[in-house]
Automatic annotation (TrEMBL):
Pfam families with a match to the protein in the record: Pyr_redox_2, Pyr_redox_dim
NCBIfam families listed in its UniProt record: PRK06116.1
Cofactor list: FAD
Species for this entry: Prochlorococcus marinus (strain SARG / CCMP1375 / SS120)
Note on how the cofactor is bound: Binds 1 FAD per subunit.
Residue span, Pyridine nucleotide-disulphide oxidoreductase dimerisation domain: 342-452
Family listed: Belongs to the class-I pyridine nucleotide-disulfide oxidoreductase family.
Gene: gor
Active-site residues, Swiss-Prot/TrEMBL: 442
InterPro entries in the record: FAD/NAD-bd_sf (IPR036188), FAD/NAD-binding_dom (IPR023753), FAD/NAD-linked_Rdtase_dimer_sf (IPR016156), GSHR/TRXR-like (IPR046952), Pyr_nuc-diS_OxRdtase (IPR001100), Pyr_nucl-diS_OxRdtase_dimer (IPR004099), Pyr_OxRdtase_I_AS (IPR012999)
Name of the molecule in the record: Glutathione reductase
Superkingdom as given in the UniProt entry: Bacteria
Domain FAD/NAD(P)-binding: 5-322
Amino-acid positions noted as binding NAD(+) in the UniProt annotation, renumbered to this chain: 180-187, 267
Length: 453
């Protein structure tokens, strides 16, 4: 094998795969190094299996409500083990698909953990040849190694699961504590609740989803509570003892919670351990690799993209950073990533999604007297025939001088699909008048966005 390439990519996740295939499409000779499974966080233990679990966990609610719609059920039973197995089978299929796509794109896959050996070289502990290290050489190196879950250093922390572990289970205990208030905590609390697990969410602060619009996040909290999730705010776990199925959590040094399992959804950290960045003095801060607006590190031929740079840790952002890197370095294009109007969704039940600014940010940036806020709060039609306190909440934030929509928020079914469309219009500079002059589509939830007075 020839170990010389134009580009070595470290990490075959969302960003690395996109960059490698795009660079190879321009004729670059590309190697991609992966220590785990091709596909990375999103495909193997993130977005994809998570969303499949979300779909699966919604059936309990459908079954519960079915009689109100005239569906007579004689018996039904939720079997998480079957759902988990089917999800893992789908992940296996996608993993193989991504390996095939690399081959079709003429990208050489090297299996093993890579580390920097010099400005133009990477050493890989090969998985194919045991304990044998191979050295690869390239003009450019792209670091796309993603992140890993991080959890508090407390006695018994290893008894806790992270989101990675959830996908590997055969089933779940009757009671689970979810620690955290971010994306993963809210999504996994809803998934488990939907699968019939009694969920308690332990939150260190006083709100869910710190960087989201507070009012929208509070509406989500109320909907989650009404679906059976219990919240305990201002609470920190100090230690865990026992064994899975029978854990005892000491909380706030003065109380105990019994739980079958605990999931730490307490954030993620860039995964730079073992990369040997010191070898060429690649600059980092707070564990993240520092990059400029073209994703170059302080070493001019070494670049970094995706979660390892800890900018906006989302799959579409990592993919776009990868493609922009490849366009800039292997074609005559000169592009930048557009970080404005990145839509975000929490796949909770109901979904929460938004694009643009929160009310808190808008007040800070424009001043309270320079913004106008429109709201709609109602019970969705899909819940009219059933007993449910689930809410729909829509919110538009307008900057008065320009009349531009600067924030569009939604809590409710299909929020993520709707906000994706709102992101297009806001990226084009839509004003409140543009929204008002758009004909409504009835009866929908999103028609409220064009009829808000
Ligand atoms: C539970 C969960 C749910 C998520 N849901 C969503 C969602 O719904 N929507 C969304 O947009 N984002 C979601 N994300 C975030 C998204 O998965 C990440 O932002 C995205 O995967 C980052 O891509 P990346 O290329 O930077 O890194 P990754 O996808 O993490 O890929 C990095 C790869 O590098 C490999 N690697 C690491 N070190 C080395 C090394 N030294 N040598 C070789 N290989 C190495 C890793 O094994 C991994 O395969 C979710 C994340 C999690 C954890
Ligand atoms: N739907 C999506 O797009 C999606 C889904 C999952 C993850 N992600 C990405 O992955 C990233 C990581 O997700 P996440 O939910 O782990 O992180 P997060 O940063 O969204 O939330 C971490 C939470 O843990 C809390 N926390 C931190 N340390 C704690 C401690 N010691 N004790 C108690 N609570 C503690 C924080 O206050 C916060 O509420 C997200 O920021 C997001 O970029 C995206």
């Amino acid at each position: 094998m020839n170990y010389s390439f134009d580009l070595i990519v470290l990490g075959a996740g969302s960003g690395g795969l996109a960059a490698a295939k795009r660079a190879a499409s321009y004729g670059a000779r590309v190697a991609i190094v992966e220590g785990d499974r091709v596909g990375g966080t999103c495909v193997i233990r993130g977005c994809v299996p998570k969303k499949l679990l979300v779909y699966g966990s919604q059936y309990g609610e459908y079954l519960k409500n079915a009689p109100s719609f005239g569906v007579k059920l004689t018996a039904s039973k939720i079997e998480p083990s079957i759902l988990l197995k089917n999800v893992r089978n789908e992940v296996d299929r996608l993993n193989k698909l991504h390996i095939d796509l690399l081959e079709k794109s003429n990208v050489v896959l090297i299996k093993g953990w890579g580390s920097i050996a010099g400005p133009n070289s990477v050493v890989v502990k090969s998985k194919d040849v045991q304990d044998q290290a191979i050295e690869l050489f390239a003009e450019k190196i792209l670091i796309a190694v993603g992140g890993r879950p991080s959890f508090p250093e407390i006695p018994g922390a290893s008894l806790g699961w992270t989101s990675d572990d959830v996908f590997l289970q055969e089933g779940f205990p009757d009671k689970v504590v979810v620690v955290g208030a971010g994306f993963i905590a809210c999504e996994f609390a809803c998934i488990l609740n939907g699968l019939g697990v009694k969920v308690k969410q332990l939150v260190r602060g006083r709100n869910l989803l710190k960087n989201f619009d507070n009012e929208v996040a509070f509406n989500l909290q109320q909907s989650m509570e009404s679906s059976g999730i219990e919240f305990q705010f201002a609470s920190e776990v100090n230690s865990i003892e026992g064994e899975i199925g029978d854990l005892n959590l000491v909380v706030n040094h003065d109380s105990n919670i019994k739980s079958g399992a605990v999931i730490f959804a307490t954030g993620r950290k860039p995964f730079i351990e073992g990369l040997n960045l010191e070898k060429v003095d690649i600059r980092t801060s707070n564990n993240r690799i520092n990059v400029d607006n073209k994703n170059s590190t302080n070493i001019s031929n070494i670049f970094a993209i995706g979660d390892v740079t800890d900018k906006v840790n989302l799959t579409p952002v990592a993919i776009e950073e990868g493609r922009v890197f490849a366009d800039n370095n292997y074609s005559d294009k000169n592009r930048y990533v557009n970080y404005e109007f990145i839509p975000k969704a929490v796949f909770s039940q109901p979904e929460l999604a938004y694009v643009g600014k929160t009310e808190e940010e808008s007040k800070r940036i424009y001043g309270e007297s320079n913004i106008k806020i429109y709201r709609a709060n109602f019970k969705p039609m899909s819940k009219m025939l059933v007993k449910s306190k689930e809410k729909c909440f829509l919110k538009l934030i307008i900057e008065k001088n320009s009349n531009k929509v600067v924030g569009c928020h939604m809590l409710g079914e299909h929020a993520s699909e709707i906000i994706q469309m709102a992101a297009i219009s806001m990226n084009m500079g839509a004003t409140k008048l543009d929204f008002d002059q758009t004909m409504a589509l009835h009866p929908t939830i999103s028609e409220e966005f064009v009829t808000m007075k």
